[in-house]
Design the sequence.
């Protein structure tokens, strides 16, 4: 990230890792706009996930394109967007739209995240799809701008770690 622009961040990870909560807290702390990646899914994607079927790369293509457009439009003003961004090629697609983008991977054990998914209500992502998300997850590579953030603390503690990581990545 350049020092001349506000931070532009993707808060990434599997479903139930806390992307929304941490993303909102991070955006507030950074003073930048926040966007929920799930809101960018076309209706057929939501219906497919509600039915218990994982999305494939073709399903994700228009969703990633919409997110990339949002990122490009916020490249100078900064922002925080949530997006699973499980695979390297998805992150590369997003980074190509906004070169100053950094990724914060909310990282936790499958057991912790499964417990969180089971406890939440009103989300279209069923707990049964968590296994497929972990199977698809490709952790950040050393050449990607980003950091893994442990999620075993409170949301506020996790957001503070995320904020510190963004500060370090912005230098």
Sequence:
């Amino acid at each position: 990230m350049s020092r001349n622009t506000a931070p532009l961040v993707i808060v990434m990870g599997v479903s139930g890792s806390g992307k929304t909560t941490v993303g909102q807290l991070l955006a507030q702390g950074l003073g930048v706009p926040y966007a929920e990646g799930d809101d960018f899914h076309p209706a057929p994607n939501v219906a497919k996930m509600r039915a218990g079927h994982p999305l494939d790369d073709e399903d994700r293509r228009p969703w990633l394109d919409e997110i990339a457009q949002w990122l490009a439009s916020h490249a100078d003003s900064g922002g925080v967007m949530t997006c699973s961004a499980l695979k390297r090629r998805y992150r590369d697609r997003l980074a190509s739209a906004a070169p100053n983008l950094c990724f914060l991977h909310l990282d936790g054990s499958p057991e912790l995240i499964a417990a969180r998914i089971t406890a939440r209500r009103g989300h279209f992502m069923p707990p049964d799809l968590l296994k497929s998300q972990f199977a698809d997850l490709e952790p950040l590579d050393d050449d990607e701008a980003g950091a893994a953030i442990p999620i075993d603390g409170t949301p506020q503690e996790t957001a503070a770690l995320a904020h510190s990581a963004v500060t370090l990545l912005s230098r």
Observations:
- The chain has a mean pLDDT of 90.
- The CA atoms of residues 24 and 34 lie 6 Å apart.
- The radius of gyration is 15 Å.
- The chain is about 45% helix and 15% strand.
